[in-house]
Amino acid sequence: MRVVWLWAVLAGLLAALTGPSAAADSLARRGRELMREHPEIWTGAVILRGERSLIVAARRPGLPARITLPDVAARPGAEARFARPAAAGEASGDGTAVVDDVSGTGGAAAFGGSGGGSPVPAGSAGSGVPGGEGDSRSRDLADLARRADRASLVAGRLLGPVRPVILVPATTEQAATLSAPASVTGLAAVAAVDSVIVEPAAFARLSAAGRDVVLTHEITHIAAGAALDGRTPKWLVEGFADYVGYRDSGIPVARAAAELAEEVRAGRLPRELPGPGDFAAGSPRLAQAYEEAWLACRYVAERYGERALVALYRAARGGDLSAALSRTLGTGPAGFTAAWRAYVQDRLR
Ligand SMILES: [Zn+2]
Predict the structure, then answer these.
(1) How far is the CA of 207 from the centre of ligand 1 (A)?
(2) In terms of domains, do 302 and 206 share one?
(3) What is the 304 CA–ligand 1 centroid distance (Å)?
(4) What is the pLDDT of residues 287-329, one digit of tens each?
(5) How far is the CA of 189 from the centre of ligand 1 (A)?
(6) Could you tell me which residues belong to the region Disordered (predicted)?
(7) 195-198 vs 189-191, strand pairing mode
């Protein structure tokens, strides 16, 4: 009897500690820690609490002293307010590891970046997330919170709950400071351990669909622990994030993989899965590397199911891809590469 009672108390305590409000508190705490690392950027910042995410947006000149966010603030738990100026000299040391990412000239042409030939239509005028002021900026940040919530839900369904902090600096220079030592040049966003850093100028140029793809891609990196993972093959890390990113986008394959489709139609089918160097900034086939990786993961999900794709991702964390392929898909690197090439040929010809 006593044991049962004790268990009930413990279970209740556990629920209280891990329930939605505890998760929201820990997200707010994490947001404050990140802000303290850069008081020069975040003093006077706007904080917006979504249901699964926290938006921290740097104050911009011309912003009113207090903003209202009717459609977000009306929800329980949501809030919009100016943060107290963050205290200097209290920086915590973590959260600096950064994965990639989405380049406006390479792999991210598919996201409606500044590069030519974007397969995703450009966003409607005035809907840029960081661009507006006053009411339009309030709407933009509320829109960002909704997209980040939705992206967290999608990534969380595959990998377990994820609650990211979305950092929206005011300028490209600030984004570079936050992402250092990784470069943010030409990128729309990068993922750190538990936060997404938005490059405001590039992100503002994305279409609505492109914003969802980018946010879901980056939040998938967070859910997968990619910033702390140096062993999983790069193609699997990026392909998996793009698989989740494009999963519900409705963007046709040939459009999302436009650069690779052009090569395939010209009779140039890739021979090998892309290596780490193919994802480096300035790589001549950066867009194609992302597209090849995406289609490899899409192939796994179609042929074996999403659970198998997640199992492959987790198994490959050990660093032995061959063993991971064998254990989760019952095939080896050569057989997998051949099947992936046939899939690419079939989908893009
Ligand atoms: Zn990525």
Answers:
(1) 18
(2) no
(3) 23
(4) 999 999 999 999 999 999 999 999 999 999 989 999 999 999 9
(5) 9
(6) 110-139
(7) antiparallel
